[in-house]
Amino acid sequence: MSPANFARLYWFTRLGIALIWLWTAFVSWYVYPHGDSIDLLRRTGIVAHGEQVLAASCLLDLLMGLATLFYARSCIFWAQFALVAGYSLIIMWKLPEFLMHPFGEISKNLSVLACLAFLALAPKR
What is the distance between the alpha carbons of residues 112 and 85, in angstroms, rounded to a whole number? Predict the structure, then answer.
């Protein structure tokens, strides 16, 4: 792969990952009903302070998106990798209907993990 194509792939991947984090923060806080989100949190075992946990997770998603755009470092991408893997494992265990959903909410995270590993291992651009 030419250096120019590698640079394009790196930036396309980085912007795509940033958009996923930012969109998730926006939709989770402003679009999806908070009551439904808190119910999902309860089903995963988070029974206290649901609104605060939801707010913290939205803030974390926002910060991950901004870090991807403005502070891209290998440690940020590995932290995101761990977060996505952790979220996915919890959802597979506690909310298995998402694993079998035809839209592939969880199975698509394998591609996200591959992109995050690529960004973490790629030379800084």
Answer: 10
Distance, CA of 90 to chain centre: 14
Distance CA 20, CA 22 (A): 6
**Cα–Cα distance between 28 and 23 in angstroms, integer?**
8
Q: Say whether pTM exceeds 0.85.
A: yes
One-character DSSP codes across 34-53: HHHHHHHHHHTT--S-HHHH
The pLDDT tens digits along the chain (125 residues) read 899 999 999 999 999 999 999 999 999 999 999 999 999 999 999 889 989 999 999 999 999 999 999 999 999 999 999 999 999 999 999 999 998 888 888 899 999 999 999 999 998 76
- Domains of the chain: total: 1
Domain of 116 in residue numbering reads as: 3-121
